[in-house]
Amino acid sequence: MVHIFSPLKMRKKRVPAVVPVLLVLSLSLGGCASVPPPDNQMNQAQAQLQSARDAGAPDYDPVDFGFAQDKFQQAQMAMANRKYAQAADLSDESRADATLARTKALLAAARAQIQSKVDANSRLRAQNADAQSENDQHYQQQKAQLAAQMAALQQQGQGQDNGDNGDNGNPASSSSSPASAGTPLLPQQAPVQQEMPAPSSSVLGNPQPQQQQSGQGFQTMPDAGQQNQGGQ
Q1: Whole-number Å distance between alpha carbons of 62 and 67
Q2: For residues 106 and 81, what is the distance between their CA atoms, to the nearest angstrom?
Q3: What distances in angstroms separate CA 190 from CA 150, 179, 187, 193, one per listed residue?
Q4: Signal sequence: where (predicted)?
Q5: Labelling 81: which of 65, 136, 187, 192 has CA 20 to 30 A away?
Q6: pLDDT digits (tens, 9 = 90+) for 147-196
């Protein structure tokens, strides 16, 4: 027997198989067209990255900041390939990582400032302690000098008092004493009596006769005692 296939029947069988494929393609194209480009989300992620960079995230939290940068670059590639849904998800993840990096950077910066203040206060305390120690040493030195001066003045005053007491006990000063202690005292000499001059031999041998006054009688010669008195 000869079988004759009709082309119309074959076409009827192919049409139902092609229809689902076309529906899937149309739905996929419609879905892509319904998702708008995530421009706002990309801008927010980029702004958050810049804020984290300004806060010092590359220094204080380089790990989270690196994640944020990588995801933002992937979101840009998805935007270029018109994978808007994927780009939106990646931009959100990039913004979250950038926010975390910024927060950690601010916290680390605050801790660094606090530590700097603590170190500065420690240095000030050390300087104040050194200054106080120097002041104490200077005070002790001045106190010792003042005590030495007071002791010297007291000794000088006691010496003057002892000198005054010695003067009051011995009213006669050394200048008024008749002789110094080392000089021996000499006995007082009796007054020297002047001897009467002896009469000369001529007077004794040849007495001068007294002139007889007229009208007087015989006069006796004076004895030796009277002659001696007369010679004196």
Answers
A1: 9
A2: 36
A3: 60, 20, 9, 9
A4: 1-33
A5: 65
A6: 999 998 988 888 777 766 655 555 444 444 444 444 444 455 555 555 55
pLDDT given at position 158: 83
Q: Nearest to residue 86, comparing CAs of 66, 100, 72?
A: 72
Residues whose CB is less than 8 angstroms from the CB of residue 84 and which lie 6 or more positions away in sequence, other chains included:
32, 35, 36, 37, 38, 78
Residue 214: count other Cβ atoms within 10 Å of its Cβ: 5
Q: How far apart are CA 111 and CA 107, in angstroms?
A: 6
Positive/negative CA dihedral, 50, 51, 56, 57: negative
How far apart CA 3 and CA 5 sit, in angstroms, is: 6
Residues 6+ apart with CB under 8 A from 33: none
Is residue 170 helix, strand or coil? coil
Cα torsion 33, 34, 39, 42: sign? negative
Asked whether 231 and 203 are in contact (CB, 8 A), the reply is: yes
Structure tokens at 96: 């979250």
Are 98 and 45 spatial neighbours (Cβ–Cβ below 8 Å)?
yes
Whether the predicted model's global pTM rises above the 0.85 cut? no
Question: In residues, how long is the chain?
Answer: 232
Rounding to the nearest 10 degrees, give the CA dihedral for residues 122, 123, 125, 128: 180
User: Both tokens of residue 227?
Assistant: 């002659």
Q: What is the CATH number of domain 38-134?
A: 1.20.1270.390
